[in-house]
Amino acid sequence: MLYRIDEVDFVSITSSKYDDLTSYASSTASLPLEDHGHARRGVRQAYGEHPCAELSVFLSEGYFYFGYDWDSTKSLQKTVKLGHPFAWTSCERSFFWNRFLMKPIMKFSASLLGSEKRAIQTGGIFVACFEGFADIQEFMFGQNRAAFAVFSRISCKRAGTRYRSRGIDDDGNVSNFVETETLFAHPDFTFSHLIIRGTVPIFWDQQGFQLGFPRIQLTRTPPATQPAFDRHFTNLKDSYGLVHVVDLLNQKEGQAEHVLSNAFDFHVRKYPDVGALSQTTFDVYAVCKNSNFERLESLFHLIGRDLQVFGYFVMDPAGTIVREQKGIFRVNCLDCLDRTNIVQNYIVKRTVDLFVRTYLLGSGNTYDAYLFQNSLSELWSSNGDQLSRIYTGSNAIKSSYGRLGKFTFSSLFEDFKNNAKRFYSNNFSEKVRQRAIDVLLGKTAELSPVIIYSPSRDAVEGELERRKKEYCDREQLIVQVLTWNTNAAIPLSGEDYSPLISVPKGILLVTLFILIGVAPPHIVAIGFQEIVQLNATQIMSVDPERRIMWEGFILKYLNDRHSKTPFSLLVSHQLVGTTICVFIRSDFLDAVRAVEIASKKTGMGGMAGNKGSVAVRMDVFNSSLCFVSSHFTAGQNNAAERDRDQIFALNELQMSGGRDILAHDVVFWFGDMNYRIDMDREHVREHIVEKNYSILREHDQLTVRMKEKLVFQDFQEGELNFAPSYKYDLGTNIYDSRSEIDISDHKPVKGVFEVPIFKVDRARESKLRAEIRLSSSATYLDDATLESSFDLIDLKDADGSPPLPPRPRTSTN
């Protein structure tokens, strides 16, 4: 039996403050999440804001399902093949949406004995729920009662709304990934078929608040994308067997979708396991012009062979497996909604027809083909509408074709309404829904799992931490960081890098290249400032051409110098003039995960990007790194303004889950900070000539303010054993004598770092954990000791109440 969640209340076990709001969710559950704010105002005035209000409404929208006695996160084929009794500890993580809430219970139950563990895991008190669609349609098949069921399970691994979650992540998870299972129950056989959808599995983005078609942007280079792409399809192969991609994107030259499709095709051809992945490009709108979807029959000629080879799952009434599904179709358009719904419906109908002809039409059996197809079409159309509402806030476009097999004038009007709803939802409601998703999945900084006291588990984890060296290896990472204010200069073309050459509007690359070094580091992070002219035109609309030019020159130089260990551009980002580029050794790309970008403007009180900071964070094995490139306020007497710029960036640069800069193991902060030396010009020149750098350091604004803990607290700066990098005549080592700044006036500065990073061997860790559990040091508590330990806990005698979960923080973006 499968249940739908229609109402959710959160009850505090430590406070009665919100008990009067137990009916709150039911009174607003029928409202769209974006309208919840209007409905709650009166309630909030009377009782205050419930910390779980938005999450309660989100869970009460009717899109979540669960089962008490069977694993609703698994397909029928997996459930039958595994054969063991249902327990939520074995649920599919990709579709286990409340796992973050359940994690403390799961950890606690792991430390219990067999009978207690089974009681918690199978007792029906705790359930695993999935988001998606589920429905059943009964009908007569000949003389027998039969039924269709459609279950769609949305992955929670890269969950989000339409324009806030695009593309792939470094673990190979894609946005809007949905596994749809079609079941056909008949007295003689039970049929199951799986088909999947998911956004194009490369790194790309699309801005939502735009009229017309929002611009698509590829955010990683092909070499930096391939590892994540490979992980995605390797995961699919492990879960489903052979994979056949059906790409429905627009193939017209010059179209944004065509760029995406070409990139998709490139990575498919680079996938190492050639025999496990095949691809069909099928521009459905071009083939089925004017919504003539009868032409989908031409698709069968392209995929018909794999349709039969992949097959479907069949089980007889005794539970014996008759046939297994051996492969899967992965269908995608841009959003994996409208076109995908139509084509998946077609593939499923074809597959069901193969099953019926093979197993049910022998011995003269007949059935009502119209009723049969109509029952399936109705379910699939409802499935498409609900998936679309979850992702975009409106029903699917062209869903009437799935139900009626044709289009009418009312269908066109309905599509127009749905497009209008999508525009509103995408631009005005996504933030609220995304916040609720992040809270449910534990991806916000304010949340942490509830801690359930378990002496035996704590003993295991303590011993595991003490013996960390047995499963955790330490490695040295070489990182080179470089910063340069280029004053909108461009790199020179040609082969002449003579230091004597100086070209207007050109910068000599030789200084930069010498600083990058000879030995190949693992990571090269470069921060540019004033990469373009800081004028009104650039501030209003950033031109990436100069950044792309610099990226190409640097990458070429790195690969010319380090041909045996070539580099790839991992990621770059430009905030008007402040830019960051991170290059990774290609043989090291597979070690990098969870790459993210954040930026903040500080010019004109945070309204303009002529000044600001850009950050890139990543995980390297099991250590986290963050690189920040900044350009602070200029002016000899504006040191306090620069302090505020740094503190603002420190507090406001946030990654997913609310992680800030300091939530990393190692942080590199570099850029044109604009701090000055508080001495008159002539004395500075004298000390430079005499190389009295220690005296200059004593008057350096940044050094002084760091000592006073006014700025960059807990950061360390390397020794300043070189002349000030500011300000020079163009292309020379001669300091400019003029007070105004109107030429290139900086030299690049480099730092080379050896960074210890940690690599956890999960297999060794799991083996050691199991050994510790069996050892006497981890099992010194028997049942009686456990019971007496819990008897000591008395909430009545507790000193105060633990705080309630914090209210969701309003974003200022």
Automatic annotation (TrEMBL):
<comment type="similarity">
    <text>Belongs to the synaptojanin family.</text>
</comment>
<comment type="similarity">
    <text>In the central section; belongs to the inositol 1,4,5-trisphosphate 5-phosphatase family.</text>
</comment>
<protein>
    <recommendedName>
        <fullName>phosphoinositide 5-phosphatase</fullName>
        <ecNumber>3.1.3.36</ecNumber>
    </recommendedName>
</protein>
<dbReference type="InterPro" id="IPR036691">
    <property type="entry name" value="Endo/exonu/phosph_ase_sf"/>
</dbReference>
<dbReference type="InterPro" id="IPR000300">
    <property type="entry name" value="IPPc"/>
</dbReference>
<keyword id="KW-0378">Hydrolase</keyword>
<dbReference type="Pfam" id="PF02383">
    <property type="entry name" value="Syja_N"/>
</dbReference>
<feature type="domain" description="SAC">
    <location>
        <begin position="55"/>
        <end position="393"/>
    </location>
</feature>
<dbReference type="GO" id="GO:0046856">
    <property type="term" value="P:phosphatidylinositol dephosphorylation"/>
</dbReference>
<dbReference type="InterPro" id="IPR002013">
    <property type="entry name" value="SAC_dom"/>
</dbReference>
<dbReference type="InterPro" id="IPR046985">
    <property type="entry name" value="IP5"/>
</dbReference>
<dbReference type="Pfam" id="PF22669">
    <property type="entry name" value="Exo_endo_phos2"/>
</dbReference>
<dbReference type="GO" id="GO:0004439">
    <property type="term" value="F:phosphatidylinositol-4,5-bisphosphate 5-phosphatase activity"/>
</dbReference>
